[in-house]
Please model this.
Amino acid sequence: MRCEICGKTIQGKPRKIIVERAKLMVCEECAKHSSISWEFEKPTVSIPKPLGKPSPKTVKSVLDEDFMLVEGYGLKVKMEREKRGWTQEDLASKIGEKASFIGKIETEKVIPNLTVVRKLEHVLGVKLVTKELPVVNVNISPPKNHGLTIGDLLNFNEQTKKGGKSESHTG
Model:
């Protein structure tokens, strides 16, 4: 590397000085003539912070395909816990989970997995899961009236020629 003032090859570590607001890398001899030095600024990577308050994310765990949580499961857990006089921390320690997780279950911000649900059912003595019945889609719609077809006219014409009465309209 060469000195930015005198042009000599720099032996050893270059000195960093400021001359008239210019940052220069110089040899030891030229560095003696300046009293102001500077250090390399490490480039920093700034991560932009999101503006505003982030929206709460709902964390969902998948229950077994055959099971479904009952409506209002969070309120049920909270009521049973309070009935026993337990705090969220007490319940959390009994089932081996964090108190914040219990809070999220009670506010229904999270859908716990089947293992956690079973622990809650056992400790609280409530039913939180129901067996999901398969949904069968049955299309019950009235037959569509497509209007009169040529086939209908031919059938009507044949029936009127034979006897004047329609076979389908017997009375």
Residues 1-38 form one domain.
